[in-house]
DNA sequence: CCTACCGATCGGTAGG
DNA sequence: CCTACCGATCGGTAGG
């Protein structure tokens, strides 16, 4: 009782999850074998089962870790005081920063979660629904406050924000000229202000 | 020489490609076995090789067919006479109609193309680049004509359009209340006109 | 973490 | 399109 209990996942398991994040991202869940994973860690595949129960458990770990990161950032953005467009910007910037800082985890989260079995997939679906609820709420608030146009389509606006954020993994490559923060800002400008000229927003903007 | 030459792919091969489109979409390329495909068609897996050379050839067929559909519609949109926003709308509506009418093919095209070997993948990449070039051109034209704001970011705007279109497969389910055409229109409105109030666009719009 | 192994399945082929 | 088969690999386990 004097010693702190080892409640953290074993470091070896964490290495396994890290390797799985990498390989599942590059080759897909079904395209990655346990032997592949084992080779990466320098052990034989049978040895992996000292740390995990199954390959699917590993996928769930990677996906849940990704989902958790996105949700944490989004909750922070939604809780900000400030205008709806401030919160929308914080939400999208946070999403894109997360996606880029953890590109492999984001890729697996977005592409491979559908291969989870029913129970685990339902768990992830709940998190995705909660996530979408946060951005919808921000849009709704902006309409209530008069900041966004009254006839704005909440569902479609929320989806456009998510589409911008969720597609980043597909085109972003490290070393680009724009930072993740800058990418988020530009998308937000586009969505909030639109493209057309003849808008007084152009003059209002700094 | 009197008979027309059988130049069309054999109907059996077409059925195979159709089955592959379905299964690769649901389970992924690596998650679909040749036995699986064969079961769907009611034959033994060895028999499939009378129609194809390899499993990868099948993936390429599905992906190339999807890419072709998108490109055809996009070329038509880009060739329209009319304002840049008209062409942007036609581009996005065409993309979304194509994605929804051929949801499985679109899903495979977007998610599984990366598992093609280098040569075939490069071929698909070229088509993707051409596609992105078309929408960038439309945005550039809109800036030149003064229709879009002069400080618009061409690359980011084009990416936002593609993000909206490419993410549809991830959330759209048949039986929704919006038609594919309507979805395309609403996204286009959002991108072109923006969300904020205090825009004279609100009054200008019909 | 290794040795040694399990039954099942993988993509693909030869020959008819 | 079937029969019959190929070597390789799959996820996973028992026992140490």
Sheet of most strands of chain A:
none
Into which percentage range does the β-strand content of chain A fall? under 5%
Shape of chain A: elongated
Class of chain A in CATH? Mainly Alpha
In CATH, the architecture of chain A is Orthogonal Bundle
Radius of gyration of chain A: 20 Å
Mean pLDDT of chain A: 92
Task: Determine the most extensive contact between two protein chains.
Answer: A-B, 46 and 46 residues
The counted number of beta strands of chain A is 0
Distance between the termini of chain A: 60 Å
Number of domains of chain A: 1
Q: Low-confidence segments of chain A, ≥5 residues, pLDDT <50?
A: 1-7, 200-206
Q: Level of helix content of chain A?
A: 55-70%
Assembly form of the protein: homodimer
> What is the CATH topology descriptor of chain A?
Tetracycline Repressor, domain 2
Task: Determine the number of helices of chain A (DSSP H or I, runs of at least 4 residues).
Answer: 10
The structure class of chain A reads mainly alpha
* CATH H-tier superfamily of chain A: Tetracycline Repressor, domain 2
Helix-strand sequence of chain A? HHHHHHHHHH
